[in-house]
Amino acid sequence: MAGSNEINVNCPSKMKVCEDNENQVYVEITKTHLGHGKDLGRMQITREEKEELARKLEKKIPIETILDKIRDSFIDKLERIHLVKRNDLLNLKAEYFLSSEGIMDTNDACQREMLNFYGNDTICLDFTYGFDLATILVLDDKREGFPAAFILNNRQDSKALSLAFVVIKEHVNISPKVMMTDDTESFPNAWWTVFGVPVKRLLCTWHMDRSWRRNISKLIKKPEIQVEAYKVV
């Protein structure tokens, strides 16, 4: 639903709920509504309707199919349920914690094999700058990076990443000796929670260089001294 439920008049309708020291609850209700009509678009669907929609989503029925069925159910009287939109169903999925399952790709078998074979040596975890993509790389026998897993997620915090790692662990159980990451802590913290702590952690040289330059510029104001300081580090 777009917009707000606020109106430009004062409606006296209210509900006042109080609880005393003995855990008794008292409710005072003013039912009278003034200054506005009964707009279907501002009403909520019933609990039973929400649960029915949630059951359909849980059965993996496509959203477009659900919406088509809702439209077809309209005969004479327009109800709030007939105004349900795609965003309402997406919000319902989030409310009921109904997540979409991953889709197996033709490259998954190869990536799983590489992760199993090389994943106990060195793991590289990398975020793609400006894009919601995280990549897990292993070093092959030529010591070249091979992308063994991709994580598409609009969040890059430890909690979200750990959920992805749990799914990966269902297919491979590895314990790398060395981990290379950027200078953030979300990746290693999530990895350690699921796979354990590696023997060594290395920082990516590009991110290290960027951090040095950033801190030198922050601590030293004169450009010529910044150059000398950078040469030292």
What report would you give on this structure?
- This is MULE domain-containing protein.
- It comes from Nephila pilipes (Giant wood spider).
- It is a single chain.
- The protein is 39% helix and 18% strand.
- A hairpin with a 5-residue loop joins strand 4 and strand 5.
- A five-stranded mixed β-sheet has the order 5-4-3-6-7. It has a two-stranded antiparallel sheet with strand order 1-2.
- The chain is α/β, with parallel strands linked by helices.
- It is built from eight helices and seven strands.
- The protein has helices spanning 47-58, 63-72, 86-95, 108-118, 158-169, 186-195, 205-219, 223-232, and strands at 14-19, 25-30, 122-127, 133-139, 145-152, 178-181, 200-203.
- The protein is extended, with a radius of gyration of 27 Å.
- Helix 7 (205-219) runs antiparallel to helix 8 (223-232).
- The mean pLDDT is 80.
User: Major β-sheet, in short?
Assistant: 5 strands, mixed
Mean pLDDT: 80
Helical element count?
A: 8
Structural class: alpha/beta
Secondary structure blueprint with pairings:
Blueprint: E1 14-19, E2 25-30, H1 47-58, H2 63-72, H3 86-95, H4 108-118, E3 122-127, E4 133-139, E5 145-152, H5 158-169, E6 178-181, H6 186-195, E7 200-203, H7 205-219, H8 223-232
Parallel strand pairs: 3-6, 6-7
Antiparallel strand pairs: 1-2, 3-4, 4-5
Helix pairs in contact: 5-6, 7-8
